Each structure stands twice: as C-alpha cells, then as structure tokens.
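User: Hello, can you help with two protein structures?

Assistant: Certainly.
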Amino acid sequence: MVLRAIAQPSGRGKAYLAIMDNVSKNKSKAKRITLWATLAVVLLLVLSVVAYCFYFSGKGLPRTSVAGFSITGKSRPDVAKEMTQRLNDTKVNVEVNGEQNSYALSDLGVNVDVDATVKEAFAKNSNFLNSLGALFKSRNVEPVTTTDEAKQKEALDALIAKTGVPAENPAVKFDEAEGVFKAGEGKSGNAIDVDKVKETLDKAIDYLSTQDISLTTSQVEPSISVEQATETANKANELLKLSASIQGRAQAYEANAATKAGWVQIEAEDDAYAAPKLNGDKITEWVNEVAAAEKVEPKNGVRNVSESGDVLAVAVEAVDGYTVKNADAVANEAVAKLQDGQNYAGKFEFDVTKAEHEDKVVAEGAENLAYAAAPGEKWLEINLGNNTSTAYEGATLVRGPMLIVPGMPGAETVTGKFNVYLKYNSQTMRGTHPDGSRYVVPNVRWVTYFHGSYAFHYAPWQTSFGWSGPGGSNGCINMNEADSKFIYDWAPMGTVVVSHY
C-alpha cells in the first residue's frame, strides 16, 4: 500500500480562500437586497394602482371632460350640478337685422339629458384597464340630447316672422266642393340662414356655453314651385281613384273622396313635396269606425203570458247582437292592397249573440189595456185623449176614470211609461209659464211625482176638471182634492204610470 500525503494550502492560499468566501457572501446579500427592493417597488406600484382606482372609483377620471369642462376628481352629484348650472346659463343669442333674440336650448327644441350624460362620463370608471387608460388619453363626453324637430322649426319660423312675412310654399289641399286635391299659389318672403343658427346651436350644446350669432334677412322665393305642387296634387288624386269598400250585414260601406283624402299623407321636404302616400293608421281607423257602426248590442225581448203560461203577445221584440270578429284582418288587408295601388273590397264576419225572451205574467185582460200589468200590480193610467186618470190593480179598475186637467198648449204633459219616485203632502211649487212669466204657488197638496217636474196634485184654482187647452196646467196632472189624495195614499214609490193619447 502506498500512502500519499494531502497537500495543505500555504498561508497565502488561505487568505485567498477567505477573500473569495467573503465575495460570495456579499454577492448573495446583494441579490437579496435587490430582490427585496424590486418587491418593494412592485408592491408600491400595486398599492398606488389600487389607491388610484379606489380614489377614482366614484370620481371623474383624469383627463376627462364633459362638454369641454374638466370633471377630474369630481363626484357624480357635483358633475350633474355643474352641468345643470351650465345648461341653465347656456343661451343662443341671435341678432337679426339689429334685433336681439335670446333662446334657451329648450326653446329651440333641444333637451339635454343630464343623468344620461353623467352616466356616460363615468362609464369607464368600473373597468380597471379603462380607468388606467385615462392617464394616457384625454376624453371629452358630449351631452346626450334629443331634439324636437317640430318645436325647433316653430321657433325658427317665429324668428323669421319677426322680421317680416316668411316665404310660403304653394299648399296642396283637398277641395271638398270638387272632391280633388289642388295646388295653391306660393308667396315670396323673408328668410334667414337657418343652417348658421343650427351650427351655433350645436356649438352651444357641445360646450354648454352661450353662443352669439348675427344674421340679416334676405328676400327669397318659395322653395317649392307651383309646378311641383301641382304634380304632387295630381299624384294625390291618383290615390283618390282607388276604391275601398266593406260589406256589412245588410249594406256595403264605400269610402268617399273626403274619407280617402284623410288617408293621403303629403309631407313637405326642404325644397320639394315627398311623394303622396296612404297612411295605414288612418285606413285602419276607417275600418274600425265601420266595424263599430255594424255592432248591434243584444236586446232581450218580453212576452206577455197568462197565468196559465199561454203567450198573449210579444211586448218587446228580441234583437240578436252582432260584433265584427275580423276587423283587424280586414284592416291589414285593406292597408296592404291600397298601399300597393290596388282597389280593395272586403267583407266583415260576425260573432252572434242570441237574444232571449223574458216572460212576464200579466193579469187576465190586462193585455188589452194601456199597460200589461201583473196580477195585483198597482198602476196608473193618464189618458190625455179624454182627460182622465184611472187606477188599476192588474186588470181590475180600482178608481176612475178620474177627471183631470193636463198641460196647456206649449206645456203639454209628457207621454210614456214612468214610475212614481217622490211624494209631498204639501209643497211650494215654482216654475215658468210658456209665456216666460214666473209663478210661485205655496201649499200645493197631495203631490205625487212620476217624471221630472211632472206630478199628480190638487189644484184648487181650477173650477172644473175633465178638459184640456188654454188655462190648463204647466204639465202636471191637476185633480180635485179627493182624487189627488187617493193617488198620494194609494200609489207607493215605483208605481207604474202610463201616459198616452
């Protein structure tokens, strides 16, 4: 066996090894420091981003504006408040020929939706990347608006009218006498540059700030010529030639020229009339009106029957009910064909509701009287032909004929079937004579009302009864005291009263 000795480092070698060891330790320490520093920076950035997002979660983002004013760092309520204030302060000042005219945006038909605009301004706050992106790119949110074109046109027309008579295009109107559309004459007049007003209005909206413009009027001719209007009238008259009819249960309904003229829609554009067309809603309205005219409500009839059940007479005929069931289909077909330039002939179909008869048991012999009363039913007859009144129970005469004085000429007593509804044993009566003079009669006795101001009552001022004519009542039934008291005592509320000649 051979043994070898292991060489030991010298003193200088030991020193070198120690130095290298220290270098290694220092590098390791430096790496750790660098790592921690990096982590600290990353953490700081994360915390900064979190803090940024948290801070701006409910506030306007950096470099963000609404209608040109910055909302950075402002809350939603503050932005809405500022926007509302600017909106209230915003005006469009239009000077025409030296005359000043000031308008709020709403005066010119513009409605600014503050809530919708604020919502749009804060739309990116909920998205992390969009929120950070605000740091690098500016953003301006335009106000959310709607425009009432009719109101705006009305305001601008009124502005023109202030400086003189505006130009008037030749109108195309339906002549009812001749049953055709005709074109009128146009008129020259004053005008302003409306486009410049609208440009100024747009600028006021974009920045919610007052804008000024100065204009002058100029003489202009109508933008639509008489020849163009006449051509439009001719086209409208072609539409009138289309026929439209609907067959009902017993008759056909044909739309006349005036009805069809109401369907024709003629709209003026900037410098021409649009081609006339038929308005489907108006056609549908006509169909529904005809359908309503064809509707019949069911009406039950009444048969008078004897106590044994035999039919004595039909007092009221039964009427079946009819309702159009295909109005929508007819309207849709009519609109489709007419708008396609075709004549239309349709037919209604009906749902039928069968009416029934109600049987009324009448007293024997009552079918021959003025009222077919039930057995034992109380009722009063007023016979204006012989100036009498009679009380019955069923067909049994209880009292009468009682002599009366009915209404004088010009104040005749009503005829028909009524019911007692009010009674006074004494009353002050007031009214007007046929000649217009007033009357007041106190302490009228035994008053029994059966319709409005018509009543049976005692008339002590009459010297006799059983006649009619001048000197009669003002419509009431004048009676002697015994007969009027009988009716007052005998006829309960609801008692039938039949008045006839």
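That covers the first. Now for the second protein you mentioned:
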Amino acid sequence: MDRTSQAEETVRRYSDMVYRLAFARTGNTADAEDVYQEVFLRYLTRPPAFTSEEHRKAWLLRVAANLSKNRLRYNARRRTDQLA
C-alpha cells in the first residue's frame, strides 16, 4: 500500500473518532474542527513509525487529546470580562 492510499484509509477509518474526541473535550464545533484538521495535518506531514494499527490509533487519539487541551488553555487565556 503506497503512502497516499494508506493516509486516505487512516483518515477514513479514524476521522469520526478523532472529531468526537475533540468535540467532547472542547465542547465547541469550531474548536473541534480545528483540532481535527491539526491532528491529520501532523499525521500527514510527520508521522512516526508505527509498530501496529493500535499504535497508530493511540497516537491519533493522544494527539487529539493534547491539542484539545491546548485549545482550551488558549481560549481560557484570551477570555475577557464584559465591560459594563
């Protein structure tokens, strides 16, 4: 299987799972979509050497969880109070 078809299969197989995790963590569709895109961008640009399909799945979910956490921190720092 060449690199392109393997990447397409991975996105097809895990896209729903990655998005659901991102949405569950962020609670916001826009942030979940940003996390989703960043996860697969990282996968396509610099994937590690996976030992198994379970390793690939765990990597994708761990990256999604970490990026979701980072997004929540980013949003919390930029939250402002309403002026009266």
